[in-house]
Design a protein that fits this description.
The chain is mainly alpha-helical. It has six helices and no strands. Helices cover 64% and strands 0% of the residues. α3 packs across α4 and α3 crosses α5.
């Protein structure tokens, strides 16, 4: 799929959640009283890379988000992403396989 077309493949729900995530990053920065430049420096990122994350650009590498969350001290929720106990389909499939 051409790079410009991947946005069309993402559900509106996910796009909205991603926008909320980006807004949360912006709010966390502002709550600390940091500028984008200062935050980028603290994260060891270019200002452009930081700005892309805060703007919610979908092409931003996930490692950029990990750096930002780590710098803000907000990493505890990362373990919940795609956690097996939250994967209802996966849980049902494991149960079915275990019964065989």
């Amino acid at each position: 799929m051409p790079r410009d077309d991947y946005r069309a493949a993402i559900s509106e729900e996910v796009l909205n959640l991603h926008a909320t995530f980006a807004q949360n990053i912006k709010e966390a920065r502002k709550a600390r009283g940091w500028s984008q430049v200062e935050t980028a420096e603290r994260c060891l990122l270019s200002r452009g890379a930081y700005r892309a994350a805060e703007d919610g650009e979908l092409g931003t590498a996930i490692g950029v988000y990990w750096l930002i969350l780590d710098t803000f001290g907000l990493v505890e929720s990362i373990a919940e992403l795609a956690a097996p106990h939250k994967d209802e389909v996966g849980r049902r499939n494991r149960i079915v396989k275990a019964r065989r």
